[in-house]
Write a structure and sequence with these properties.
The chain has about 350 residues and is of the alpha/beta class. It contains 16 helices and 13 strands. The strands form four sheets. It has a four-stranded mixed β-sheet.
């Protein structure tokens, strides 16, 4: 065999070995990180963690001397949680509603008391649901009842797969109850709103694309941080409208016990989530228009976050488990509403 053939065969063997190593998660180079974590997160948190991850990796290197790499997976919050339940080996989950982490706790992947493992119900940030409208607000949209008006096209992601779709549904329903209305009146409002939804995207980022790039709809209802980012990028084309009241949308986090114990990375995963509560982490959170927990950081960014009357899922719906069972489980209120029952 010629030298060229020998060299080619060696190179081919190296390529095959590298491909196999990558497929099973083995390091393929001497420069590979000492530790790798996978953060499975919700759809509109991409940009946040693109900034959080390198900041944490640098801090981890300074304090431990070890190299760590954080990998990301994004999609609709509930869809992501189901992927973890089905075997996606997340070291941590960073979701936009407690319900998705509760489901993982029920499957034995996350501690039952996960919400007490970190401060503030294990939610280092929170947001709320607001409206993004076309420049000048041609439909005159001001509050939840305006979304139910005939001829108004409302872009909301699917509450069955996306956390912000679920928060939007509950915010609209709760707005009626907060004003002294009945469940029947709340159901009527939500029914009219979803009749105005032309497309049910599976995740929040897809819904944003539908509204901003595909030019579908008169109003996008999504997280405050998402509309602020859109407004920052396409400022001259859109306006932000705050309803009279909205829902408190916490962004809870949890260590996936089954995975971190299997891989021996519990300390690193815990350190990663604790970083979100650090002043540096809170600063990055605020810069991405999520409301921080740190009083000092919140004060610094006070001008960014408009005061708004917020109500919680616990106050109005008896908690996420009750809300899920009544409204979003198969055969629940949403299925009846969207199915025309």
């Amino acid at each position: 065999m010629s030298h060229k053939k020998i060299a080619f065969s060696a190179a081919r063997r190296l390529l095959l070995a590298s491909t196999f190593a990558a497929a099973v998660g083995l390091p393929v180079a001497a420069s590979a990180a000492d530790v790798t974590l996978l953060n499975v997160s919700y759809d509109v948190a991409r940009e946040l963690y693109q900034d959080i991850n390198p900041a944490f990796e640098a801090q981890f290197k300074r304090t431990t001397g070890k190299t760590i790499q954080i990998k990301q997976s994004h999609g609709g919050s509930s869809k992501q949680a189901r992927s973890v339940a089905d075997g996606l080996e997340a070291s941590v989950v960073t979701m936009n509603q407690a319900n998705d982490i509760d489901m993982l706790a029920d499957r034995g992947l996350v501690a039952k008391d996960w919400a007490r493992k970190f401060p503030n119900n294990a939610a280092p940030a929170y947001s709320t649901m607001v409206y993004l409208v076309r420049k000048g607000n041609p439909k005159g949209i001001k509050d939840w009842t305006d979304l139910a008006k005939p001829g108004t096209k409302v872009v909301i992601p699917n509450p069955k797969t996306a956390g912000n779709g679920r928060y939007t549904y509950l915010a609209a329903w709760g707005s009626v109850l907060q004003n002294g209305g009945t469940d029947a009146q709340a159901r009527e409002l939500v029914t009219k709103i979803f009749r105005n939804v032309p497309i049910l995207d599976t995740g929040g980022r897809a819904a944003t694309t539908t509204f901003t790039q595909r030019q579908i709809g008169d109003v996008l209802v999504t997280f405050e941080n998402e509309v602020q980012l859109v407004r920052k990028e396409f400022g001259d084309n859109f306006d932000i409208v705050y309803p009279a009241s909205s829902i408190l949308a916490e962004s809870p986090v949890a260590v996936v016990d089954k995975v971190v114990d299997k891989r021996g990375v519990r300390n690193e995963a815990t350190a990663y989530l604790n970083f979100l509560y650090s002043e540096q982490g809170q600063e990055i959170i605020a810069k991405h228009y999520l409301r921080p927990r740190s009083a000092a950081v919140a004060k610094k960014y006070a001008a960014t976050f408009r005061p708004i009357k917020l109500f919680t899922v616990d106050e109005v719906f008896g908690g996420w488990r009750a809300a899920q069972k009544r409204h979003f489980d198969d055969g629940g209120e949403f299925d009846k509403i969207y199915g025309g029952q």
